[in-house]
Amino acid sequence: MVGRIRRGEHTYAAIFSMALLTFVGILNETAMNVTYPELVKIFGVSLDVIQWITTGYLLMVTIVMGTTAYLLRQFPAQRLALVAVGMFIVGDVIGACATNFPVLLVARLIQAMATGLSTPILFHLIFTEIPANRKGIMTGFAGMVISFAPAIGPTYGGIVSETMSWRMIFWL
Known about the structure:
CATH topology: Growth Hormone, Chain: A
Shape: elongated
Number of domains: 1
Helix content: over 70%
CATH architecture: Up-down Bundle
Order of helices and strands: HHHHHHHH
Number of helices: 8
Low-confidence stretches: 1-6
Mean pLDDT: 90
CATH superfamily: MFS general substrate transporter like domains
Structural class: mainly alpha
């Protein structure tokens, strides 16, 4: 059973944790979009350069998602999930503490790798560990998580950056 998580509550806990990581990753990605004008001033770079924190993020998510099937054949899902969580935390801390644009971009790319791993792992767990009669509801749950994050991300980012600081998007 290498690479698989036991059925039952462990499976649902694993799915919930990957759904949460996917949600936070997508929320963080969309929340930063509203901070562009502030980041242009803080880092002294142009808007087209600042946009790389979203463009690079989406590009990295896509690249990592494309390799996750291979990674799941090579490594246990649990290990990849832990790597994704660790990478997201590292990217989060680096992003919150970034003192220049290149550091912020690297932090975002690390976070993107985590999101690019967590999303396919979420569906992998659903399709390999959930009984056939529950796959539809669990797939719907995963789709809802993925759809809800970008819907609230810009509002969340605006509220956080207006009331606190853009850095708090990472800390919260």
